[in-house]
């Protein structure tokens, strides 16, 4: 049977409940009772701290694809040019300084109950493995995610939580890096907090006091990066369920619907694969050798893409023969591409489609951070 | 890898790689990493295939 508290104050060493005649109720906790929950006379509730439950509100995780469910670029990556931020699993990238290393970033399947047995509300389908088997002359390598807008977490506490394991005990450094965009203030690299990763899956939590942006100039395209600085040695590290949230408490992992997470990723990068006889593009034939078509993006991209890549076999054409595709122009919503070949009907139209027994894929570059 | 020049609808030059996977096509923008790689390729003494002409 529930107890109704309508007025007066009840206090002991564990809690303090104040339901006074003003109509507000305050719950305070701690040895020197501090307000934790306030319920006003209109039944509005205010929490002083974080709310943590298996099904708490969505979008608290500022990391996109933290469950490693989206792999549009592929499932295995081994080319990491020095001085370049190389994208791997969607939204995550790796910065490597130095050459001669053998690095493999790969998708790995999760054995069911691996993480629920450790307290997670749900097992993800995949985890990410980062392996360096030859160090070469590498002096730095990290695994990071850039998040739009340098105002993110600025001057506040950010809590990063993740599951990880290593081949042997390994220490990594976690920090927040601030970039102030085009024409903005110089980058600020926050202090790293070291975490030692053990050999079995364990949940790790780090709270970082992020640098303020007071007095800074912010230009277009600013970002912050949650950085995992990796050992400068050979190693194998695995990560799962990465989350970065406001505040000092690591709450339950923010599972979002697959379609929502995919759309969030596609703002920065997307890849369209045309299967056998599948549609690729309709295009107008302006001459016997040139045509132009439009490809509409699945979601508005962060900024206008500046190029395209064509993978696999060239598409077949309804009329004429294909020779190449060129990038004409883009907005954040669509691309105008040129289709070049021969045998077109000037002033007509044609279509491109997936060839027999092959696939064609196209992506647009330049919208990543 | 080889490059070929193209004219776009607006008359702006575009570049496409030839004989590489994936085939790349991109705008000549100095902030574009693909274009930076192309400039480096030019500095090495290479010459792209010429454009076929404006195709408006």
What is the element layout, followed by pairings?
The complex is a heterodimer of chains A (369) and B (56).
Chain A: E1 9-11, E2 15-19, E3 25-29, E4 34-39, E5 45-47, E6 76-77, E7 84-87, E8 92-97, E9 102-109, E10 126-134, E11 140-148, E12 157-166, E13 170-179, E14 188-189, E15 193-197, E16 202-209, E17 223-229, E18 235-246, H1 258-266, E19 271-274, E20 279-285, E21 290-296, E22 307-312, E23 316-317, E24 321-330, E25 334-342, E26 348-353, E27 360-365
Chain B: E1 2-7, E2 13-18, E3 23-27, H1 33-43
Antiparallel strand pairs in B: 1-2, 2-3
Q: What overall geometry of chain B do the principal axes of the alpha carbons give?
A: globular
What is the spatial order of strands in the main beta sheet of chain B?
1-2-3
Number of strands of chain A: 27
Q: State the order of secondary-structure elements of chain B, H for helix, E for strand.
A: EEEH
Helix content of chain A: under 10%
Number of helices of chain B: 1
Beta content of chain A comes to: over 45%
Largest interface: A-B, 22 and 22 residues
Low-confidence parts of chain A lasting 5 or more residues at pLDDT below 50?
A: none
The fraction of residues assigned to DSSP E strands of chain B is 25-35%
Helix/strand order of chain A = EEEEEEEEEEEEEEEEEEHEEEEEEEEE
Explain how this protein is built:
The complex is a heterodimer of chains A (369) and B (56). Chain A is an all-beta fold and 369 residues long. In chain A, 2% of the residues lie in helices and 46% in strands. In chain B, strands 1-2-3 form a three-stranded antiparallel β-sheet, covered by helices on one side. In chain B, a hairpin with a 5-residue loop joins strand 1 (2-7) and strand 2 (13-18). The model of chain B has no long low-confidence stretch (mean pLDDT 81). The chains are: A mainly beta (369), B alpha+beta (56). Chain A binds chain B through residues 286-287, 289-290, 292, 306-311, 324-329, 336, 338, 340, 365-366, and chain B through 4, 6, 8-10, 14, 16, 21-27, 29, 31-32, 34-35, 52, 55-56. Strand 22 of chain A pairs antiparallel with strand 3 of chain B.
């Amino acid at each position: 049977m529930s107890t109704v508290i309508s007025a007066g104050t009840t206090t002991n060493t564990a809690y303090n409940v104040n339901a006074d005649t003003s109509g507000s109720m305050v719950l305070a906790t701690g040895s020197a009772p501090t307000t934790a929950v306030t319920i006003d006379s209109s039944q509005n509730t205010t929490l002083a701290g974080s709310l943590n439950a298996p099904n708490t509100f969505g979008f608290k995780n500022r990391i996109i694809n933290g469950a490693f469910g989206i792999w549009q670029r592929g499932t295995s990556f081994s080319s990491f040019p020095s001085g370049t931020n190389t994208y791997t699993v969607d939204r995550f990238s790796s910065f490597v300084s130095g050459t001669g290393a053998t690095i493999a970033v790969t998708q790995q399947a999760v054995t069911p109950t691996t993480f629920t047995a450790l307290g997670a509300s749900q097992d993800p389908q995949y985890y990410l493995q980062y392996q360096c088997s030859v160090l070469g002359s590498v002096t730095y390598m990290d695994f990071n995610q850039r998040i739009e807008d340098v105002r993110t977490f600025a001057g506040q506490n950010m809590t990063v939580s993740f599951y990880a394991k290593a081949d042997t005990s390994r220490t990594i450094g976690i920090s927040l890096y601030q970039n102030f965009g085009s024409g903005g203030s110089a980058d600020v690299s926050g202090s790293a907090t070291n975490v030692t990763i053990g050999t079995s899956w364990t949940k790790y939590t780090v709270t970082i006091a992020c640098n303020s942006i007071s007095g800074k100039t912010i230009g277009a395209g600013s970002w912050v990066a949650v950085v995992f600085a990796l050992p400068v040695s050979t190693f194998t590290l695995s990560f799962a369920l990465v989350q970065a949230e406001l505040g000092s408490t690591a709450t339950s992992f923010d599972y979002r619907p697959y379609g929502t997470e995919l759309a969030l990723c596609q703002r920065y990068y997307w890849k369209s694969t045309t299967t056998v006889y599948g549609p690729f593009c309709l295009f107008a034939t302006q001459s016997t050798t040139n045509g132009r078509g439009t490809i509409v993006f699945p979601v508005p991209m962060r900024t206008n893409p500046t190029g395209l890549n064509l993978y696999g076999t060239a598409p077949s054409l309804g009329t004429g023969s294909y020779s190449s595709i060129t990038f004409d122009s883009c907005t954040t919503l669509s691309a105008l591409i040129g289709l070049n070949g021969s045998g077109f009907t000037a002033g007509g139209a044609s279509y491109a489609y997936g060839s027999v027994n092959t696939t064609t894929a196209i992506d647009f570059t330049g919208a990543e951070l | 890898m080889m490059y070929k020049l193209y004219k776009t609808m607006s008359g702006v030059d575009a570049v496409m790689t030839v004989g590489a996977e994936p085939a790349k096509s991109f705008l000549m923008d100095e902030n574009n990493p693909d274009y930076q790689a192309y400039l480096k390729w030019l500095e090495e003494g290479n010459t792209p295939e010429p454009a076929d002409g404006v195709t408006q």
